Predict the structure.
Amino acid sequence: MTGVSRPPPDRTQARRQEADMSNHVYRLSEIVGSSPTSVDDAIRTGIAKAAQTVRNIEWFETQQIRGQVVDGGVAHYQVTMKIGFRVED
């Protein structure tokens, strides 16, 4: 133990978050974002494009990262991810 004191968790906020999520139903879709710049940009590109046609995207989970190598250097990144979106009532 380092002796660093931490404030107690905000139980009200935790309960509010539980209540907010407890009755939601989510669907999953798998997408692949790509970018010549970076993994981060591939993720952001994929999410931005999906958000043009899918409402209520609330989270993503990366599944696979791959890339193309040209002349010994990384030329392109691809990130396969699952996106979770809330099903509307």
